[in-house]
Amino acid sequence: MLRNKEVRQFCLWMLLIMAVLVLLALAVHPAAVGMVLVSAAVFNTAFFIFTAKRYQRIASLSEQIDQVLHNADVLWIHQAEEGELAILQSEIAKMTLRIQEQNRQLKKKREQLAQSLADIAHQLRTPLTSANLIISLLETESNERKRKELLREEEALFLQMDWLLSTLLKLSRLDAGMVEFQREQIAVEQLLAHAVRPLAIALELREITLQKSVPKGMVLQGDASWLSEALQNILKNCMQSIGSSGRIEILGSDTFLYSELVIHDSGAGFCEEELGHVFERFYRGSQEHASGYGIGLALCQRIIVQQGGTITAKNHPQGGAMFILRFPK
Question: Which pLDDT tens digit goes with each residue over 283-296?
Fold first, then answer.
């Protein structure tokens, strides 16, 4: 306690005052010296007891802060009393609680990152294993036709891995808040045409019919490029569900509050236990037709939600999956 500069100064002043009072007491009457010394002793004792308690409380606060800084899970807070120290204590308690919450969030994010890295490694392992197998077959295969088939398979695998890494990069940018969406008026017919164009050949080869019914002049507010990618991921999911020889319907509608797009396919739909996990990252479902990496719909949800919209997945009453997209006016 004497290491504190203010306490040392107080002690020096008290000694000086006591010396002056003793000299004055001697000048008045020798017996007054004893009274001065007793009074000074009582006062100093009370002062040091009071100061020591204050230092104990400060030390307790310091210990609490130290525990929080070392990731302690429990923070014990004294009941505050009136006075400046109580105010300081209350503010420190609030600060430590905020630090604890930040520590919990950081811990959760570290765990999510570790899980994501494990999932990425798992998702890449399968195509890499297949690619290595194809390379081994190419070394021993002499038939030119079979070699070309193997090379096409190899190219398809590398395209899959490129798409996976590109999608994961986009997801990480969205999660980190690094994407600035353009806010513009988009003609829905043009948006759908742009989203469908890269899939036109695949739709034709699989004999999947695409039907669109959108009110003339219907518009959305958002980023056309990102929304087009979100729609593509939904359509790809529908195509995977259908397989071949099926139908995809896109219905648009307008209200005073929002614009709505409903995408319905003629596939098998979702199992009941899948509906709550459709938009989870790396979730692939339990049905036999499930394929892909389970991140397309996760990316789709991030894109739509971060632009103020909503997306839900349901089973259509007539069969098949149904995605409902709503965008506020």
Answer: 766 554 445 567 88
Per DSSP, the residues of 105-150 read: HHHHHHHHHHHHHHHHHHHHHHHHHHHHHHHHHHHH---HHHHHHH
Whose tokens are 């919990």? That residue is 104
pLDDT digits (tens, 9 = 90+) for 120-166: 777 677 778 888 888 888 888 888 888 888 888 888 888 878 888 88
CB proximity list for 300: less than 8 A, separation 6 or greater: 229, 230, 231, 233, 234, 279, 311
Q: Is residue 184 over pLDDT 70?
A: yes
The single-letter DSSP state of residue 207 is: T
Cβ burial of 223 (10 Å; 0-12, 13-18, 19+) is buried
Q: CA 321, CA 275: separation in Å to the nearest integer? A: 10
Q: What is the pLDDT of residues 219-277, one digit of tens each?
A: 999 999 999 999 999 999 999 889 888 999 999 999 888 999 999 999 888 888 888 88
Exposed (0-12), middle (13-18) or buried (19+): which is 105, by Cβ within 10 Å?
exposed
Specify the higher pLDDT residue, 216 or 128: 216
| Cα distance from N-terminal residue to C-terminal residue, the chain | 66
- How is residue 19 written in tokens? 């010396």
Contact 90, 80 (CB under 8 A): yes
| CATH 3.30.565.10, applies to 184-328 | yes
So what's the pLDDT on residue 246? 92
Question: Using CA atoms, how far apart are residues 49 and 294, in angstroms rounded to an integer?
Answer: 67
- The alpha carbon of residue 265 and the mean position of all alpha carbons in its chain are separated, in whole angstroms, by 31
Domain ranges of the chain: 5-76, 119-175, 184-328
Q: How many helices (H) and strands (E) does the chain have?
A: 8, 7
What is the spatial distance between Cα 247 and Cα 231, in angstroms, rounded to a whole number?
A: 16
